[in-house]
Amino acid sequence: MQVAIPLFPRFTALDAIGPYEVLQRIPDIDVTFIGHQRGEVRSENGFLGITIDATFEEMAHPDIVVFPGGVGTRPLMTDERVLDWVRTAHTTSTFTTSVCTGSLVLAAAGLLTGLTATTYWSVYPMLTEQGATPTAQRVVEHLPERIITAAGVSSGIDMALRLVEVLYDDTAAKACQLMIEYDPQPPFDCGAVDKVDDTVMTRIIEYAQLRQ
Question: Model pTM?
Fold first, then answer.
């Protein structure tokens, strides 16, 4: 089974690597990082580089699409090469999925029109503008339409585990979960907007501005 994970300048690393770590545990799954051209591409802060091993055209019909997010998704929303690839890939894919703001690209390609979907909490309005209905669910699936979207960053791990369950069975998904020892026990319960106060939100805004 061929899994394509598109990469692009200023992608969010865990959006891509989280699902990769889950899916590559299945022996008959091959994961390929694809993009506009072969070679290294850097994450949104420039600290991490990952190699693109195939172009979009070289992998036009993967079995699974996992489109990650990051600030670099914004130019892709009007990149016809990327949007055409998403549409073409989805015509034959078993599932087309996204993590974080990767759903904005799926929406821009017309795949989420009239559907509920999720994305990073701060860009719900952008998802609405693209014809989808945002929801705060961590993973949103439309199995008849072969689409699954995941919320921000770390939720890609949850999405990938659910995808393994759908593709194989719950035993396979549980095996993947244990192989990556995914047993979250965070020191704080603040992983959603409605769980933080204004002080935390102010700090988030401050950090975001400094990273621009």
Answer: 0.96
